[in-house]
Amino acid sequence: MADYPAPHLIEFPKLGGPGIGYISVGENAKDPLPFAVQRVFWTYYTPESIVRGRHAHHRTEQVLVAVAGRIIVTTEMADGDIQLFRLEDPNVGLYVPPSAWHTMQYSHTAVQLALASQPYAEDDYIRDYEAFRQQWAPKA
What we know:
By secondary structure, the protein is mainly β. It is built from 1 helix and 12 strands, in the order ββββββββββββα. It has one helix spanning 129-136; strands spanning 8-11, 15-17, 21-23, 39-44, 51-57, 62-68, 71-77, 82-87, 92-96, 100-106, 111-116, 125-126. It is globular, with a radius of gyration of 15 Å.
């Protein structure tokens, strides 16, 4: 099993100004992206009462960005370490390693951009919590 960094916030460059607006950039060959992006997807119009995610991965690393609205992301590592992240600045992303069980709750206006290290493959998803704990449990 590969070692991955813990979930953590990544700040993207924020170029521009209030008079003209801003642009943020992440390039594969440069920081702050920790992997080559193989897939991009976004979620939107998610009711505030819905909790999405509820999975981990075998291989896929992700960076999640709230390009609009607010997203509360909870990550849990197999050793029980739980972190709560509030994403609401479009120049800040959250790195989520495959070894993190994660859930997301959205404000009504939230748009989440996800940058993923792997193309979509259903067999990469760990949707059973106990299987996640077994897969990613610290080795003695």
